[in-house]
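Re: export button greyed out
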Amino acid sequence: SNSVKQTGQITVSEGASVTMNCTYTSTGYPTLFWYVEYPSKPLQLLQRETMENSKNFGGGNIKDKNSPIVKYSVQVSDSAVYYCLLGPPSYGYCEKSGGSNYKLTFGKGTLLTVNP
Amino acid sequence: DSGVTQTPKHLITATGQRVTLRCSPRSGDLSVYWYQQSLDQGLQFLIQYYNGEERAKGNILERFSAQQFPDLHSELNLSSLELGDSALYFCASSVRDGIEAFFGQGTRLTVV
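Workaround output, generated via the alternate export path:
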């Protein structure tokens, strides 16, 4: 079955660069989404990583079962909860992944606190 | 504004009762997803509908059901409510699988 693991909390100072990890277990080649949750706002999409665009993202990639998100020069306003979501494979990898019947799975979220 | 509308925003009800949560997806989106966010379980996928048909099922209890109507809005029905059902229920919509989904602001359900 699918599972997603994220670092629980990260605290940094303004101006720092932050890498938030998302490691997962699944079969095939899923799509990895990153969403951010600001207080009282709907979840917003930050990043969508597929096998086709995986090389554009820093750090690990889908083949490594690791899809981090990197934020550079963070500001206090970046303080939020960041969620990683495991989703169905992109169209080109659907058959190689044994079909698109993926159970959408969220990680528990990383609480990022940026101090001034 | 994500374009996904959920009503009501807040709901307080008693144990044993039944409630219906409503979601209007973004214009043109055929997929609707329901999620439950609770303190202990985090964000959990409940169920997905695509163009009126159930497409994927997650950790949805038998006491819960959903449907998507011809106009593509969706309802999540929660019955025989228990204290542990208190949570934030999100709806999201997308054009199709595997691409970004847009989330509504959620319905906060409190069961007392």
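Chain B has a mean pLDDT of 93. The button fix ships in the next patch.
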